[in-house]
Design a protein that fits this description.
- This protein is α+β, with helices and mostly antiparallel strands.
- It folds into two domains: about 15-120, Arc Repressor Mutant, subunit A; about 130-325, no CATH class.
- It is built from ten helices and 14 strands.
- The longest helix is centred in the middle third of the chain and has 20 residues, at about 185-205.
- The model is unreliable at about 90-100 (pLDDT under 50).
- The structure holds zinc ion (ZN) (2 copies).
- One zinc ion binds next to loops.
- One zinc ion binds near residues 136, 138, 141 and 159.
Amino acid sequence: MRDRDEPRTHGRLPPETTLSLLSNEVRASILWQLSEARGGDGPPPTLSFSELKALAAPEADSSRFNYHLQELVGPYVERVETEEQWGNASRPIPRMAGDPEVGYQLTPEGTTLIRTIRAWSAEAATDRELAIDHDCDYCGTTLTARYENAILAIECPGCEYLYDYNLTPPGVLTGVDDEFGDVDDADVLDRAAEYNRTVRLAFARGVCPYCGNGVDAEFQDPEDTGYPRGDRRAALIRRGCSHCGNKDNLTVGELLLREPRVISFCLDNGMDVTRTPIWEIEFAATDRHTTVRSTDPWAVAVDVTFGDDRLTLVVDESVTVVEEEGGA
Ligand SMILES: [Zn+2]
Ligand SMILES: [Zn+2]
């Protein structure tokens, strides 16, 4: 009987055992070559034993190679044994004389592992300043944007307010079709804005964007969070995933970007919040229109205004909208 409290990976092994399987060059090469063969489209390719060995470890003794390959079968690699399964391969499989009728491909877990490594890999130094055309809502100074150590930071050099500070994979700077260096600043910012919106909205909607688990929610006094210019912030909502450890801090305005009422009110007033970078959406990027009505329990109001048109939403301790005014 399996102990319910003991986690098992999708490949039915304890997580640490699954990690320990990776500590070998031949195995690492097998996983990488199976991923390389994929080439970005189609279903996972299936490679025959000989083809995989020729790519991953041509010098290795066959039985030693097979030993390492079989160690990966289950958690990271699956054997494909029937003609029908072979048919799922994305390209014709070269059959060599004497090959067993068996092929190998990455499992979803193996694909995810390699995809994570690829997502955080880049072919050149990535740190760079990015030209940005947006002024600070507080002091009017033009913002600065910098990508450094996998963090996209957008801030105001005039008053130090931080508009965005997000872990963002270097894929946002990488050229499509491996043309590194061809991505201009505007494209990088567009991609980073979309990537971060996706992450933020998943947290706003209560789902971990990495593992799909639910996330908890807790209001925090901004002065306790270490953010610069905490004095300019009214409230932050920390949402965290107890399953994978992923977490994020959201302004109440960012939380409200999930609300159809807000999306349609903004659209009626000429702003598409599903496309506009969050750092350009004043009620989400700053707390200038956010009012803390109480802290025990928390109740926080956000005014979304366009000229004389105003929509006010109040969010309670459970991060649910409990009141709505205006916006007619
Ligand atoms: Zn400023
Ligand atoms: Zn998670």
